[in-house]
């Protein structure tokens, strides 16, 4: 029995077949999606409206003297439609003759209500129609789409959403773009949603429950729709309102259409650059989901972002990452959109925001720690996204954690929870099954240490890099080189040479006492500058000597021996050094005043499990075997 995803994939393949049949040699392969997507949306909208269309046309004609927005309201109230079309044409009618197909098609599209007009603008639909008409392919394309059964009785909303996602993936795949940058695989979204809602299941019950969901990088609206469906599964009576913002034309048009099809508001997705202008500036939300571009350059938005960052307490005032990677800007934005009465966010990132040591990312992480906003971070399996196989993570933010989770951050390693895909899509070769996702939710709810979970504090991720030195051990030795090193000084003369010879073998630490006494006895002067110079000139490393101190009693550091020890803020410095440093360098010294502070989330290191090395005898046996094989090979060569 075919699954929903299987049916969606099959349907998408049928839709996409248009490309090979009618677009070949007219449109470049990388542009197929620009044509397939708008015609798919048009056919779906047409199928959804066909049952009521005659009545709607008569109804609208009766209100022809009213402004368009009032007509929209009237139609919505009477027919429960958030959009409509008053053209007497449809695709089948247009395809029934091959004359003036372009004019008929544009007239038909112009018949849609004004609240969806920008969909066709975003798709640049008139330009596409003109190109197909000029190539004499428009009639064939219209005829093909007029036969596709995309009505609600044939294709459920959720399946249609999957078809849109599939077609969009094929479109971006043809363009060679990183498809993962434009939309997120459904299994990843479902995991984000499962974890996001698991903490709120009790509060989601009831008949009058209201929730808002927001995605600042909405793409085709997949995250919003999956989250909406998940909430309605938990509570069929819940009222969910979704909000999105998307920059790219095609994704915006598709997302708006998909949300409309599934009963959303016409303005549920707004078009614009989230980093430059937050189109929901005065709103916060119960849930925020986002998959911003991995390593996305924000040079275009730099001027605006830096200007916004000047306002204390604003979304970008907590630090700015490098221009080559804007992920943490979106992380800050999502945190700023959480409802002050309690909001949760799930944000996808690559590994960089976990440990990037630049000043901006450090500052942003510190702000997240200080505000106790990080609830959990989940490592996803690699090869989960269509456009990249790299390691990815989901940040769960929460500005109103339950009491038991406050001051804590949970790390969940789900990198091993996956199933191989029967047919890879781009770089996506793995998927998380329902059982895999359930295991993650179980670990999240258990909130305890296990093989895949660690519960830590922000202080565990905050550190100071402390400089560690070793104290030198020096002996005093006379040499001609030492004398030569001192001859350039005005306070040094030949009369002091014999005194240096007498100091040979004297404990180096005692030179500050014995040199002045010997000089005075000889009627000479030994100012402190000369004492220091003599100590330096006669110093010779000697591991049998006591630890060296200078004239003032300060430890003398060994040349060429300096390390930096990273110490978590959750640990006592002296205890850490006693455990980690002094057993290997008993004379090590450190200077906490010169420590540099920072933070990182070393996810991989925390879950690293050292492997037991193989027995030495086993390694020796392998070496002997290989040596024997090499000897036989050399023997064979020499005999040829």
Automatic annotation (TrEMBL):
Biological process (GO), any one: methylation
Stretches assigned to the DNA methylase adenine-specific domain: 158-451
Keyword Hydrolase applies: no
Catalyses which reaction(s): a 2'-deoxyadenosine in DNA + S-adenosyl-L-methionine = an N(6)-methyl-2'-deoxyadenosine in DNA + S-adenosyl-L-homocysteine + H(+)
Record GO terms (molecular function): DNA binding; N-methyltransferase activity; site-specific DNA-methyltransferase (adenine-specific) activity
Residues annotated as domain N6 adenine-specific DNA methyltransferase N-terminal: 13-145
Protein's name according to its UniProt entry: site-specific DNA-methyltransferase (adenine-specific)
Highest taxon listed in the record's lineage: Bacteria
Matching InterPro entries: D12N6_MeTrfase_N (IPR022749), DNA_Adenine_Mtase (IPR051537), DNA_methylase_A-5 (IPR003356), DNA_methylase_N6_adenine_CS (IPR002052), SAM-dependent_MTases_sf (IPR029063)
Coiled coil: none
One Pfam family, short name: N6_Mtase
E.C. no: 2.1.1.72
Keyword Transferase in record: yes
